[in-house]
Design a protein that fits this description.
Structural class of chain A: mainly beta
Strand content of chain A: over 45%
Oligomer: heterodimer
Distance between the termini of chain A: 36 Å
Largest sheet of chain B: 6 strands, mixed
Largest interface: A-B, 20 and 19 residues
Radius of gyration of chain B: 13 Å
Helix content of chain B: under 10%
Number of strands of chain B: 11
Shape of chain A: globular
Order of helices and strands of chain A: EEEEEEEEEEE
Shape of chain B: globular
Chain lengths: ~110, ~110
């Protein structure tokens, strides 16, 4: 496995603003994913971050709300745009290497929107 | 439609007891079944995983039991310790390797 870091670790934001979350891995990975974990809930996949192309979004998530970048094989960002209190959640970066089935998660970003 | 059903939602066990968490899946294309452990303020971490070609896998105090015909699998934590208090997620994945997660079980082990 590798070291996966996320910034910020937590934040409190005002509604209507946007927050960009960074995910950095200390080695090159094949796949990077972004998940949302609402309080007391399971892990919901937002999108797969594709290197050099547009992210692949799951049903219920759109690029205008959650723009994602992945400029290289070790870094990705997720932006939560025009936030509302319903966006309060933990946002998790996850990675997977080619040929492996296991996903590894970062420590998460805890977001509270007031 | 929830493809992986996990129970119980919460579990309280005394120190030294056995914790059992159950999961059931619907999609017969699933062929990889990991369990994740998540402590408060941390991301989920892989605990143990199993494939359907074996009925049981043990790593230390943690055992996965797998019943392919019933499409069920469970996590057993033997000699549960207060340090095991965490949220546990079962998951299942198939060809796409993108896992479907259960809703999680909050385990509290009392000293």
């Amino acid at each position: 496995s590798a070291v996966i870091s996320q910034k910020p670790s937590r934040d409190i934001c005002q509604r209507g603003t946007s927050l960009t979350i960074q995910c950095q891995v200390d080695s090159q990975v094949t796949m990077m994913f972004w998940y949302r974990q609402q309080p007391g809930q399971s892990l919901t996949l937002i999108a797969t971050a594709n290197q050099g192309s547009e992210a692949t979004y799951e049903s219920g998530f759109v690029i205008d709300k959650f723009p994602i970048s992945r400029p290289n094989l070790t870094f990705s960002t997720l932006t939560v745009s025009n936030m509302s209190p319903e966006d309060s959640s933990i946002y998790l970066c996850s990675v997977r290497w080619s040929g492996q089935e296991t996903q590894y998660f970062g420590p998460g970003t805890r977001l509270l929107v007031l | 439609q929830q493809q992986v059903k996990q129970s119980p939602q919460s579990l309280i066990v005394q120190k030294g007891g056995i914790s059992i968490i159950n999961c059931a899946y619907e999609n017969t294309a699933f062929d990889y079944f990991p369990w994740y452990q998540q402590f408060p303020g941390k991301g989920p971490a892989l605990l143990i995983a199993i494939r359907p070609d074996v009925s049981e896998k043990k790593e230390g105090r943690f055992t996965i039991s797998f019943n392919k015909s019933a499409k069920q699998f469970s996590l057993h934590i033997m000699d549960s310790q207060p340090g095991d208090s965490a949220t546990y997620f079962c998951a299942a994945s198939g060809g796409s390797y993108i896992p479907t997660f259960g809703r999680g079980t909050s385990l509290i082990v009392h000293p």
